[in-house]
Structures are given as structure tokens and as C-alpha cells.
């Protein structure tokens, strides 16, 4: 699965020791750029933190998996990112077209003779 948006907050990195050894976890808050923006908390684990460096304000696409688990009769859901692609903030593919100026409409300086065509009119 994937989601796109802007990183609005980096939460403090967490680390510890478990039955499988050392672990690290970094959580991020992403806000979508929809008409009604949503905020999504996702996390990266271990080496994925260093492989996907991002900072607040970055526009990103996050590829993730969702996993839920039960503990004491309650269910908890994790959004585990596995890749973050930084988006070009200058690009606006769905935005308005670029504004043209007079130079875009200026005639070319080609002084060659016009080509003759076979059109009857």
C-alpha cells in the first residue's frame, strides 16, 4: 500500500532490547494533501530509519504494510513503512498550467522561405 503527503512531525526515536536483541523505532506524522487532509502516524524500524532519511516539511510517498495484533482483549494496529520516496516539491502535476509570457508567442527568427504545399486553396 502507499500514501502521499507532507511530513509534519517526527516523533522521538525509541530504542530498547527485546528477546531478539536491540531494536529501534522512529514514528512520523504525515498529512495528506486531499480536500479534507488526514493525519497518519507510521513508523520505520531498524535500518529502514537510516535508509529513508526525511525531515519535517518533506513531501513523500510512503510504501507501507498494515498489521494488527491483539493484547489483553484489545486490538492495536501498526502502519509499518518499508520505503519512503521523497517527492519533488516544485512539481505540481495536477496544478494549473505554467503562465506564459510574450516571449512564448514571439515569431521565430527563421528567415528561410516558407515551404510550398500542395493544398488547392
Please provide a brief summary of the model.
By secondary structure, the chain is mostly beta strands. The protein contains one helix and six strands, in the order E-E-E-E-H-E-E. The longest helix is centred in the middle third of the chain and has 4 residues, at 48-51.
Describe the structure using short key phrases.
3% helix, OB fold (Dihydrolipoamide Acetyltransferase, E2P), 121 residues, mainly beta, 1 helix, six-stranded antiparallel beta sheet
Could you characterize the architecture of this molecule?
The chain is mainly β and 121 residues long. The protein has one domain: Beta Barrel (OB fold (Dihydrolipoamide Acetyltransferase, E2P)), CATH 2.40.50.140. The chain has one helix spanning 48-51, and strands at residues 2-10, 14-18, 21-31, 39-45, 59-71, 74-86. A hairpin with a 2-residue loop joins strand 5 and strand 6 (74-86). The termini are far apart. 8% of the residues are buried. The model has no long low-confidence stretch (mean pLDDT 85).
Amino acid at each position: 500500500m502507499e500514501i502521499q503527503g507532507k511530513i509534519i512531525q517526527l516523533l522521538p526515536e525509541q530504542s530498547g532490547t527485546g528477546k531478539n536483541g536491540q531494536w529501534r523505532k522512529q514514528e512520523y506524522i504525515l498529512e495528506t494533501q486531499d480536500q479534507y487532509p488526514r493525519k497518519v502516524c507510521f513508523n520505520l524500524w531498524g535500518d529502514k530509519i537510516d535508509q529513508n532519511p526525511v525531515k519535517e516539511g518533506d513531501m513523500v510517498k510512503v510504501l507501507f504494510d498494515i498489521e494488527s495484533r491483539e493484547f489483553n482483549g484489545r486490538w492495536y494496529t501498526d502502519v509499518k513503512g518499508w520505503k519512503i520516496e521523497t517527492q519533488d516539491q516544485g512539481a505540481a502535476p495536477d496544478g494549473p498550467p505554467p503562465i506564459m509570457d510574450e516571449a512564448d508567442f514571439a515569431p521565430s527568427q527563421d528567415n528561410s522561405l516558407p515551404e510550398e504545399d500542395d493544398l488547392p486553396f
